[in-house]
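Form 7-S
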Amino acid sequence: KTLFRGSGLYITQSKINHSCNPNAEIRFPYSNSKLEVVALREIQEGEEICISYLDECQLSRSRHSRQKFLQENYLFICECEKCQEEINQPDLT
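Output:
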């Protein structure tokens, strides 16, 4: 069986911001090019829908490690609620 890997541009999904405490995630339920944005918890009216650009392992790391990865790979400094709550953590990886 051949496994195909590729990339695509999903216009709506590409507009979803990152959070280190996301309220949604992207899934490919049919193993094809169709994706779903799925809520991870109840989303309040007016609350921004956010996904994580990090995998589960990266999300469990220190604020400093998350910030470093996001800055190097996505060219921004995360200012999500979780990062703001951990702002006084020492800068350790």
